[in-house]
Amino acid sequence: MKIPVIILSGFLGSGKTTLLLSLLQESKQRGLNPGVVMNELGQRDVDGYILQEHTGMTVEKLLDGCICCSRKEELGECLQVLLARRPDAIFIELTGVANPEEIAYALLEAPLRDRLTLHFTATVLDAENTLEYNSRLSADRHLVRTLRQQISSADLIIVNKSDLVEQETLWKIEKAVRKQNIEAEIVYTHYSKINLVPLLAGITPRELPIPAPQRAPQTFKSAAMTRVLPDSGGTALKEHDTAQETSYSQVAALTLTFPQGAPAQLTRRQFETFFRECGDNLLRAKGHVILSDDEPVQLVQYAGMRTSWEASSYPGLPYVVCIGLNLNEALLTERWSALFRS
Ligand SMILES: Nc1nc2c(ncn2[C@@H]2O[C@H](COP(=O)(O)OP(=O)(O)OP(=O)(O)O)[C@@H](O)[C@H]2O)c(=O)[nH]1
């Protein structure tokens, strides 16, 4: 029996890892043993550590590049490693600039096509920012096209961070989504909390002799929905033109580390000001930092221009990964160093 693959896509900071955490918790409750591939643009494995901290799971990590373009060849090797562990399903979390169609096509290539089947592609949108991205990212036409492909190739669109916007914005998002994808189910949520039953439908522990995974006609939210997913058992793929469709966006990551022996002296406000002053070009930042007060190590996340903090048990040297469009690395590094001199 082929192993079902669920692809999690969506722009930077939209809520993919939050969704993956729920999926892993639900999988655990069902006695499933999933394999996970996480891809990060930066050199540091921030999300993998979050996952490990919350679920105790180890994941296959592909760092420092995007598996839909610059690190494409490594995806196959990584999936082979996971297959050797005989997982019940495989969850692939893409980078925010990845085109999920590329991954879907990679699954159709030999030898993977004999072992894997695409079960679902879910794309997460940040309700607060998604309508702005076309104009904000217009300098990078590849990226704008990739964001459209994230929507058009999805079976399920999760409009996340609904807690941060008015109902009117949600209607506008639905209208914009429908221009790209008339079929996908759309669900509105916060902290990526959806009904996971349809997503995991037909995926069972390997010991149980159950037929191949199938899409269930259940809805992703509790209220009844009229649309029923077609029982196709896989994502419909459109005609492929790799040269035109790969991401290769201008988004890049820069890892900023604390200077050797630097005393813990920075405040939350200083980090928040640092991110804000990076301006529109900074799209995402995340890392583990030490603050001046007696606080434990903090996981800091900057997404959609908001900064959030969470206690962390990260034991390594502190760092922050900054991800952005045309980041001025020299300026950023200088401003970062200046933080420690003040
Ligand atoms: N207010 C609010 N914050 C959210 C919601 N969902 C996620 N977040 C926060 O948004 C930040 C990014 O969430 P992630 O799940 O890491 O997003 P991601 O898409 O995996 O991010 P990258 O893979 O790094 O691009 C975190 O600080 C989350 O706690 C939501 O519905 N509402």
TrEMBL record:
Domain CobW C-terminal: 263-338
Keywords assigned by UniProt, alphabetized: Chaperone, Hydrolase, Nucleotide-binding
Catalytic activity field: GTP + H2O = GDP + phosphate + H(+)
GO molecular function, one term: hydrolase activity
Domain CobW/HypB/UreG nucleotide-binding: 4-187
SUPFAM superfamilies tied to this protein: P-loop containing nucleoside triphosphate hydrolases
InterPro entries: CobW-likC_sf, CobW-like_C, CobW/HypB/UreG_nucleotide-bd, P-loop_NTPase, Zinc-reg_GTPase_activator
Cellular component terms (Gene Ontology): cytoplasm
Gene3D superfamilies: CobW-like, C-terminal domain (3.30.1220.10), P-loop containing nucleotide triphosphate hydrolases (3.40.50.300)
Keyword check for Chaperone: yes
Similarity annotation: Belongs to the SIMIBI class G3E GTPase family. ZNG1 subfamily.
PANTHER family registered for this protein in UniProt: COBW DOMAIN-CONTAINING PROTEIN, COBW-RELATED
Protein name (record): GTP-binding protein
